[in-house]
Inverse folding.
């Protein structure tokens, strides 16, 4: 599993997706990110993601993002966990 620090991320690298619950995201959004809840992203990955693009996955504490990155890697996506 690939990991980077949030301070090392820039938007030219790929899309930053915050996988927190939408209510938590509203309280504490990750700058430069879009919000797609983890369960929704895993279940409907084909709807949100393109296997030819890079994605950076973040959450507040790292647990959800680790789960999402592991699952999406299994499905063949180029994903990296971002440690906030």
């Amino acid at each position: 599993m690939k990991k980077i620090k949030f301070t090392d991320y820039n938007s030219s690298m790929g899309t930053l997706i915050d996988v927190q619950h939408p209510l938590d995201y509203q309280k504490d959004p990750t700058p430069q990110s879009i919000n797609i809840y983890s369960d929704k992203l895993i279940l409907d990955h084909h709807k949100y993601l393109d296997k030819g693009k890079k994605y950076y996955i973040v959450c507040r504490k790292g647990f959800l993002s680790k789960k999402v990155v592991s699952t999406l890697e299994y499905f063949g996506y180029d994903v990296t966990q971002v440690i906030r």
